[in-house]
Amino acid sequence: MTSSPPTPPITPAAPRNAKATGVLLLGAVVLVQLLLLAGLWERLRAHSERAAVQGQMATVQPGDPLPDFAVQLAGGETISRAALLERAPVLIFVASAGCAACEERRGQLLRALQDKHLDSVTVLVLGDGTSAWLREFVRGTQWLPALDTGAHAGRKFANGLVPFFALVNRTGTIQAASLAGLDHSFLHAVADSVLDDASQHDTTSTPHTTQEGG
Predict the structure, then answer these.
(1) How far is CA 72 from CA 124, 140, 149, in A?
(2) CA 51 to CA 60: how far, in whole Å?
(3) Tell me: the pLDDT tens digits for 32-60?
(4) Alpha-carbon distance 105 to 111, whole Å?
(5) 133-145: buried (b, 16+ CB within 10 Å) or exposed (e) per residue?
(6) Would you give the distance in Å from CA 11 to the centre of its chain?
């Protein structure tokens, strides 16, 4: 009687889903990496947009010197930086035709200057538009209208964004600047500038007297 050959040991079959599990894990890793890259890209894009917006914001800030420029007033007179400082304090109003916010700020500024008795402040309007529009824009005011076609001068203040306001003292320093509007702090700075200028004028104009001894 012959013996049967030994039966080879049975090797357990690998789980049928092991390969699928590996694929899923690999896919999950790739997905996580893609999400991380997408998040990084979004942060870079947001940072780039913020930088672009900041680059478009006011180019002059409080403490900066008044940019060098020369503009022609509606009457034909050319006024330079040096000539403008002789009229300080000066409130520079950068505006443009077709700007609804500029029209709104015009009325707001006019009322504020009248209500606070700040009519002595010189207002220079750098207007990007037509001569007819600029004349109408300053009608009923003592403001100095300067036609700034193409916003060549205005871009030195706020890269062409309007409306923009800058307050300049006699030393040629920007005391306040605003792209958001005429808030309380800006108007307060205008009032302080007028008072400071008036006190300095009184000091320099008051003659010094001495009494002779008897």
Answers:
(1) 11, 20, 11
(2) 16
(3) 788 777 766 666 454 344 434 444 454 79
(4) 10
(5) bbeebbeebebbb
(6) 76
C-alpha 161: how far from its chain's center? 8
Work out the mean pLDDT of the chain and round it to a whole number.
Answer: 81
- CB–CB of 165/58 below 8 Å? no
The whole-angstrom separation of Cα 124 and Cα 85 is 11
Give dist(CA 6, CA 18) in Å, integer: 31
Q: Is 177 helix (H, G, I), strand (E, B) or coil?
A: strand
d(CA 41, CA 111): 48
Per the DSSP assignment, residues forming a β-bridge with 166 are 92, 177
Q: Which residues make beta-bridge pairs with 176?
A: 167
Q: Please name the fold of domain 70-203.
A: Glutaredoxin (3.40.30)
pTM of the predicted model, to two decimals? 0.68
Q: How many CB atoms lie within 10 A of CB 28?
A: 10
